[in-house]
Design brief:
With 157 residues, the chain is mainly α. It has a single domain (4-152), classed as Four Helix Bundle (Hemerythrin (Met), subunit A) (Up-down Bundle), CATH 1.20.120.450. It contains 5 helices and 2 strands. It has helices at 4-23, 28-32, 43-62, 90-109, 126-152; strands at residues 116-119, 122-125. It has a two-stranded antiparallel sheet with strand order 1-2. Helix 1 runs antiparallel to helix 3 (43-62) and helix 3 (43-62) runs parallel beside helix 4. The longest helix has 27 residues, at 126-152. The radius of gyration is 16 Å and the shape is globular.
Length: 157
């Protein structure tokens, strides 16, 4: 039986890899496609979004470094990590996401579950961050499931 930390880290890794799995076997156009007309969501955009989420929770909140810049911030465009993607490079963006995950692991490894960072001036424990990240990935992986089903016209992906 795994201890609490190993369980939290295991579930977070599972969900990280699930997101990548949902993007496998597709070409660039499919990964960038937004099959739900009322939504900005695409698989490529999900990976960029989760890179920003990793950076925020582990570098800004846990490590308490508010100077860490956003990756794709465009102050004139809401959800600028999601759109536009016309000039986005999949390999570069996937590598950025992987780097953010690696940085998150590194920062977390130096902390105990009860250690806290700051979120909006309030303490936020690594335990809470892990739990939130699992929820965030699980929610977005559900979106990725639906997007992939629309792209493949199948529920077997």
């Amino acid at each position: 039986m795994l201890d609490e930390r190993a369980m939290l880290e295991g579930w977070l890794e599972f969900h990280r890899e699930t997101l990548v799995f949902k993007c496998e076997g597709l070409d660039d156009a499919a990964r960038k496609s937004r099959p739900i007309g009322t939504s900005k969501l695409s698989l490529h955009g999900h990976v960029r979004h989760m890179a920003e989420v990793e950076r925020n929770w582990f570098s800004r909140v846990l490590a308490m470094d508010p100077s860490v810049p956003y990756i794709w911030l465009d102050v004139d465009r809401e959800d600028s990590e999601l759109v536009p993607l016309e000039n986005a490079d999949w390999e570069r963006d996937l590598a950025q996401w992987r780097a953010e995950c690696g940085r998150s692991r590194q920062l977390a490894s130096a902390c105990r579950l009860d250690d806290t960072g700051l979120r909006r001036g309030q303490p936020c424990s690594l335990r809470w961050i892990y739990t939130h990240m699992i929820e965030e990935y699980a929610r977005h992986n559900g979106h990725a499931d639906l997007i992939r089903e629309l792209l493949d016209k199948s529920v077997d992906c």
